[in-house]
Amino acid sequence: MPQSSSPELIDDETTCPSSATLRIANGTSHKLDQAVLDSIAESLRVPVEQLSLSLSLAELKVDSLQAIELISELEQAFAIEVSDGELAQLHCIGDVLNLVHSALMRRGDKATP
Amino acid sequence: MNAARRVVVTGMGAISALGLDATEFWSSLSLGRSGIAPIEQVDAANLRFKNGAEVQGFEPTRYFSESQAHALDRFAQLGVIAAREAMANAGVIPLDGSNEVRERAAVITGSSVGGTASIDRGYHELYAEGRRKMRPLSLPMMMANAPAGAVAQEFGFGGPAFTVSSACASSNHALGLAFWMVRQGMADFAVAGGSEAPFSLGNLKIWEAIRAVSQDTCRPFSRDRSGLILGEGGAMMVLEPLEVARARGARIRAEVVGFGLSCDAHHPTRPLAEGQARALRAALNDANIPKDRIGYVNAHGTGTMANDATEAQALRSVFGDHTERLPVSSTKSVHGHTLGASGTLEGVATILALENGLLPPTVNFTELDPKFDIDIVANHARPADAEYALSSSFAFGGMNAVLAFRRWEGASSS
């Protein structure tokens, strides 16, 4: 049963390990990562330079509704589908990048927008 | 201005996924027979969720002429049908008396989004189908006050008429305001309630985007709940001053004793227990009854993670130890979340529960979320001798409205 991640929900006290890294790190993903970071920056209306993998959504004061909006923008931009359960697991920017990678792998390619 | 008058419900009407009238509604509700099924009005192939609570076997032309049906969006049709049933149930078709009586009759309705299917269809024709002109009936069909206008027109009511839009609390606000207006002598008769028909693709995609809808079913207060299920329907009540109802020998269904409102002032979609608690307390204060007299709560209970957790916390904070003796159910598990209609539809459920001495169940219930400390009427109706009951609506926007009802016991209720 996927956990509901209703728009009313977000954990305030989520933290991210300072050593957060991308689970999928290789040369070819760099361009994709940059595109995802650009999309995140645009959606959250923050300068892209401010984003780091370990930066938490709570630190960015992203509330539940903004998190849903962010994921919706990424779904549209990268033609991916993100489940409610996956959305509930997002705590930091690194998680968001990993999520896009997983969703693209599920889709069977690594197309960029 | 008259002194405060006692206000009673003398008629009720309900059309929903549980049936075409209030009798069918109670038959299904009391048995916990769910109206949730695969969505039929819209092709759900490209939707994350596939289930809804739609009115089954609804044929508009059984209720309206072809031209009337053509000019009323489905949400308005559902509202008018419920109002007709409530008026017939109250025995006031036609409403007897002089023009003066009709000129002091009010119609107050609630709707969250109005004629969304008409808007959706019109914009699709404009943007995608190359139609150059919008249909002239678009405006009267989409306006959220269409049911109030149609009801006033049909019964010739010339008194106050308006529509409240407070998302999922709309028709509790409508009913509560009607109660206060009759109590204070601003109207001598009122039809109040709400209606909603949310099944159009554009509107369902909006609900999909906000990720509040379950891909499975509605399991309020269960540990494994996964969201709400959208429903459609119309529900209306007739409210009159007690003395007027008695004088004409009306069958009284219940007394409306309290109305409480509050705002979380916190977040557009994330609820706050203290805000909800303020509305619950305000309803108890308005009714002037101690909290331990409440014998049943028909909860807002949407089945989302956050609503149910917040509501359980609010109930505990208001009722304290009495919470252990206070049965709670969410009937949304059977008739879905009917949004702007939900307050009054659940008010009808609450009054029927008081009348029948039987509390309708919260179905699809697996196990209580271990974080909650409340008594859920799970899966099967429970006999109970409740005198007072609350019906809660807690809307997006943080807007809360709670009504308190008293069981009517004929001559002994004075």
Describe the secondary-structure layout.
The complex is a heterodimer of chains A (113) and B (414).
Chain A: H1 29-44, H2 64-78, H3 84-88, H4 93-107
Chain B: E1 7-16, H1 22-31, E2 37-38, E3 51-52, H2 66-71, H3 74-90, H4 99-103, E4 105-110, H5 116-127, H6 138-142, H7 146-155, E5 161-164, H8 170-183, E6 189-196, H9 201-210, E7 233-241, H10 242-247, E8 254-263, H11 273-287, E9 294-298, H12 305-319, E10 327-329, H13 332-335, H14 342-356, E11 358-359, E12 375-376, E13 382-383, E14 388-395, E15 399-407
Parallel strand pairs in B: 4-5, 4-6, 9-10, 9-14, 10-12
Antiparallel strand pairs in B: 1-7, 1-8, 2-3, 6-7, 8-15, 11-13, 14-15
Helix pairs in contact in B: 1-14, 3-7, 8-14, 11-12
Q: Compute the CA-based radius of gyration of chain B.
A: 20 Å
Strand content of chain B: 15-25%
Radius of gyration of chain A: 13 Å
Q: Low-confidence segments of chain B, ≥5 residues, pLDDT <50?
A: none
Structural class of chain A: mainly alpha
Query: Uncertain segments of chain A of ≥5 residues (pLDDT<50)?
Result: 1-5, 9-14
Q: Please give the count of helices of chain A.
A: 4
How do the SSEs of chain A run, as a string of H and E? HHHH
Mean model confidence by pLDDT of chain B:
96
Sum up the overall morphology of chain A in one term: globular
The side-by-side strand order for the widest beta sheet of chain B comes to 5-4-6-7-1-8-15-14-9-10-12
**Relative strand content of chain A:** under 5%
The N- and C-terminal alpha carbons of chain B lie at a distance of 23 Å
Order of helices and strands of chain B: EHEEHHHEHHHEHEHEHEHEHEHHEEEEE
The percent of residues in helical segments of chain A reads 40-55%
Counted beta strands of chain A: 0
Share of residues in helices of chain B = 25-40%
Distance between the termini of chain A: 31 Å
Q: What oligomeric state best describes the polypeptide chains here?
A: heterodimer
Instruction: Please provide the count of β strands of chain B.
Output: 15
**Overall mean pLDDT of chain A:** 80
